[in-house]
Amino acid sequence: MGFTQDRTAPVVHTRSGPVRGVAEGGLAVFKGVPYAAPPVGPLRWRPAQPHRGWSGTLDATAYGPSAPQIVREVDPMLGGHGFAPFDEDCLTLNVWTPGIDDARRPVLVWIHGGAFISGSGAMPNYSGETFARDGDLVVVNLNYRLGPLGLLHFASTDGADAADGEEGGNVWLTDQLAALRWVQDNIAAFGGDPGNVTVAGQSAGALSTTALAGHAGGGRLFRRAILQSVLLAMPLATPAEALARTAAYREIVGAKDADELRALPWPRLVEATAGLLAATAEWGHWTAPFMPVLDGVTAARQPVENLLDGPGAAIDVLIGWTAEETAFVFGLGEAYASATREQVLRRARDGFGDGAAEAYAAYEAARPGGRPVDVLIDLTTDELFRKPTLAFAEARAVRGRPVWTYEFAFPTPAHDGRLGAPHCLDLPFVFDNFDAWSHAPFLAGMDVRTRDDLARSVHRAWISFVRTGDPNHPAVPRWERYDLHSRATMRFGAAGT
């Protein structure tokens, strides 16, 4: 199916004004469409504000700038997660659609991860092309404010009016909410159905999705959620903790108060992120320099609660983890490769207390020949991802709420097989777009046929869930909902599923 209007320069009329896109691979694609006012000048650290619109037709043929972020020069996993150019004026989104018509296709909104400090909707990795083409979906992805520009928290006297005129924090979340409201207002003009929206994300993007569920309004903003590798075990910061983190950041950047911060150029603000990363790092722990805050306004409860008894309780959920999530952090690098049993035991005591030695022995026995770092990877993957995900599924099942669970266990041979299936490895399989990941070292050495067969299964399951609320399709074994009787979890592994 292809769009039927001007095949070289399709035009859609949004509420802010007309936008002209481009034809790409049988799809109409619109890039760099503003969904909120530029958060610059007096709007820095302010909640997202409505865009004032434009006169004439907006050229939407090129991505807008990515949110300012630090860029890792050498990345042995992803090969990089930023995408230049960067600019504070970054609140844009991108749309892929098979047709500018009244077909009312299901809509997929993708929110990128990156620990709230990196990533972009402009990255080829997250192009909506494959989902739009293979699933007859309208796909949207977006930029939102990251790092200090999106997650610093100020006392109410320093803050600004939050959504609906109330005081609060989490301006990154106000960005994402503005994007979802843009979808509600405009997606029908792109051939989509505003009443059939799925929000999906990975890592910080998945945590974002759970936070957005607190504003779902009984499914009015979105009906379904896909949560990939969501850190449910990491609670949002309290206001006091967030203020302390902001104070530590101000000390690093050399600003005594919010007014001095506002006077600094964004490159200086982003540069100081490295200092906060170093200050918050803790051996054997998955830490983040910036964390969302439980501010009582934009986030009224811990995000997981939104999908249990909160405003998002009726949302259908697909959720899962990768088998060796924390290998992404601990699998490479001498500090962990040379880890000793005693070091890992000390880390294990944080979760197991006096039972740390017994737990270590159990994990060691489950991985014959494993190194201490392998034990660290297994126990922290369980602690941070697998166990909280299954606890969430149990809680949904008790309430009779739909939830499907999966484990992505396809190991990569890259780096001599030391990684297993780390955090992020599922992404190219979900999007089924390995060409866009050619720069990622952690994909090296995979058997192409096996890889592609598994990708088709995963990709089609996600499409089926977006379209129907059920991930089943003919190429996978029967995937039952998680319930208290079967506790069924789909395992995507080396031999298929």
**Structural class per helix/strand content?**
alpha/beta
- The amount of beta strand, in percent, is 5-15%
What's the number of extended β-strand segments? 13
Percent in helix: 25-40%
Average pLDDT, rounded to a whole number, is 93
| Poorly predicted spans | 157-167
* Number of discrete helical segments: 16
Strand order of the largest sheet: 3-4-6-8-7-9-10-11-12-13
SSE order, one letter for each helix or strand = EEEEEEEHEHHEHEHHHHHEHHHHHEHHE
Could you describe the largest sheet, including whether it forms a barrel? Answer: 10 strands, mixed
Round the Cα radius of gyration to an integer and report it. Answer: 22 Å
Summarize the structure in words.
The chain has 497 residues and is of the alpha/beta class. It contains 16 helices and 13 strands. The chain has helices at residues 129-135, 147-151, 171-186, 204-212, 239-253, 258-263, 266-271, 273-280, 303-306, 327-330, 334-337, 341-352, 356-366, 372-398, 427-431, 448-468; strands at 11-14, 17-20, 22-24, 27-34, 58-59, 92-97, 105-111, 138-142, 192-202, 224-228, 316-322, 403-408, 489-492. The strands form two sheets. Strands 3-4-6-8-7-9-10-11-12-13 form a ten-stranded mixed beta sheet, sandwiched between helices. Helix 12 crosses helix 13 (356-366). The protein is globular and about 70 Å long.
